[in-house]
What we know:
The complex is a heterodimer of chains A (276) and B (304). Chain A is α/β, with parallel strands linked by helices and 276 residues long. Chain A is 30% helix and 11% strand. In chain A, 21% of the residues are buried. Chain B is elongated, with a radius of gyration of 29 Å. Chain B is built from 9 helices and 9 strands. The two termini of chain B are 30 Å apart. Chain B is an alpha/beta fold. At the A-B interface, helix 7 of A face helix 4 and helix 5 of B.
Amino acid sequence: MPSAVVWELPLPMKTETKCKRGRHGGNKCGRGNKGYARGGNRPRLGFEGGQTPFYLAIPKYGYNEGHSLRRQYHPLSLRRLQYLIDLGRLDPTQPIDLTQLTNSRGVTIQPLKRDYGVQLVEEGADIFSAKVNIEVQMASELVVAVIEKNGGIITTAFYDQRSLDIVCKPVPFFLRGQPIPKRMLPPEDLVRYYTDPKNRGYLADPSKVLEARLELGKKYGYVLPDMTKDELFQMLSTRKDPRQIFFGLAPGWVVNMSEKKILKPVDERLLKYYSS
Amino acid sequence: MIRVGLNFGLRLRGGAAARALSMSSGQTGPLGTSTTPASLVNVAAQAEKPPPVILETPILRECPIAIPAHRTPVQAWVESLRHYDDQPVGLADLHPDVFAVMPRVDILHTVAIWQKNFKRISYAKVKTRAEVRGGGKKPWKQKGSGRARHGSIRSPLWRGGGVVHGPRGPTSYYYMLPMKVRVSGLKVALTTKLMQDNLHIVDNLELPTPDSQYLANLAQYRRWGQSVLIVDVNEMPENITRAVAGLKSITLVPGLGLNVHSMLKHETLVLTLDTVAFLEEKLLWHDVRYTALYPFRLPYCDFP
């Protein structure tokens, strides 16, 4: 006889089915007298006896029209970013990318739910004090100002759905054995956003971005720290090519995880395609 | 941490003597007959003078994984199987977050029931009135025959007719409990075994003989109970595999085979020191790991 006796918790979680047997559970069995309710022949849900039902009386309006085609950006507050850096989950000495954010479980991106990436949100702007090289998909002006005031660099870049899935979960992609695809360029309505130096877009002119940095410093009233004298200048200035998905890996390469090898294409047409 | 120190040898000798004295007084089993095996009777007579102990350095196992500051480790004797009468060989510190968790009996129940049911596929299937052979024709005309009206000879009212709401085809009762629930089930089971004095730790599974009777006598002498579950992580020595092969009530199981149902079914649990280290490492990892981005069997760079 085992000495541990186990039992279930007597929680009221199990729904008791009403038993239609005898004394007070029986007779009419909770159905009342004649009519369609007794015989189980009730009209459809929403029917109001002939009066125009509520769901037809109210006029249509496109509140949710095209909701499954709208782009969603997961919010990441500066407060959460600071929290992750302080706890050591994010390494500020390396460029911070979507891959780094996902690996540290700072954000959870669902590419299949029309997520297009991460947007930086202003909450925690007053307590943010970390020098980072961060790449997100959207950022407001105040956020850009805060990061640059602390000596960091912020870039906004576009990832299409397939590239986003690869960036968020690199290991399952490498195990598929497919070559790394090239990142697609943004759609028409986003081109203006990503070519604007004020948003630090990745397609914008670098000289204009420098001008925008100075203007922002004047607007918000802080002095831009000089980057060239910084010891981490090389890390802070690393940026991805517009067609690149991973730092250090170019499109067209195949990564073999089990043998720890990288295979690069040799054919001219492939090289021409992947370098375009 | 050992607070016993110099009194180690003396205390053990006292314990062994007490056990020997109780055996020599004559245990009576459920049938009223003496259960002391014949091989032990002679030995018990000599047990008044305990054999001289060769004091080697005792095995003091400290927990390799850091213990939270507010908790202290639980301790258990480390025994050996080399001699049925052998005294404990050392003392082991066990991690409290594995061997001293809250005794959640409902978790044990949930996990034990899950283990029993998730593999179940019931193959029961009965035929409905549509599947029973025959019964397409109306047996007699609707009116005039004087008998009750019927449409087919295989309706559920008829003898030999189809069953109405019977079991339909193979049904699977598969479901998975969350990983952390199953892990905490193991922790609660280990805690229960330790707290109810049913857990014994052994330094290794080396037996002097491959004799099943020796192992049975050892279990009986040490009052381990009716059934014993021995768990080892390394390759098991030949002696113990041959000894256990002949016994029904003692089971030898690899480390990955430890489960809540087996722990509840067997009265005693015997772990080796390596098994304890393995279990602590595996069970405590779930407390500190990140959530899974993709299945754990795919490679992760930052944790195993």
